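thought: fold this chain, then report.
action: predict
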Amino acid sequence: MVKIPAFVLTFLLGVSAVLSQDCNNGYFAFKKGTKMQLTSYDKKDKIVSTTNYELKGSKAESGGFNYVFGSETYDAKGNLLAKADVNAQCANGEFRTDVRNLLSDMTPKTTGMEVIVSGDQLTYPQLLTIGQKLKDAAITVKFSMKDLGMNIMNTTFNITDRKVEGFESVETPVGKFDCVKISYVTSFRLMGNRTAKSVEYLAKGVGMVKSEQFDDKDRKQSSMLLTKLEK
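observation:
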């Protein structure tokens, strides 16, 4: 199975890990200065990368708030892969990730690769209940060799069947969290049609503390876990 590049998957999922839907409550952190680390693992639970997030600040606008947070992604050896500042919003009881040009400034330092993401917003309502269906989204990711002017890949990821599965307790290196469990399907075309099934676990006041990705035969391909938290 051709997998979604690890640092891209980490970033796309982690975008929703440091903010709140209603700006002061919900399944995301919202306090300025909050720092988190998500560690990505392969199917054998070997570390692939780590991503550090920090909520830098917020600004009231359009009946809600716009948040700015930074992220830095490192490979298993501690080499910087990507760095960016990203915006997200909360308004009208809903949190939205702004994926348009989400990774425009993210340039993997070890390969000279440029990554640009565009598309829909991922939304999370303030109130989540078992069986609730969430909005689908489509995200296009473009990889290119900046120095050579060469386009490597241009792929659209369709995120569908987003659903609240229930509520579970999740153990992490920084403690145990009561979480909401959300499942979804990601389909894309890369050397043929590909499908990945995923689940993510969000804790109130924290955000995503765990996620897992499976292939179309329900075999785990990768995972992420909250490994550091400063509030």
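thought: worth noting. Confidence is low (pLDDT under 50) at residues 16-22, 100-110.
final: tokens above.
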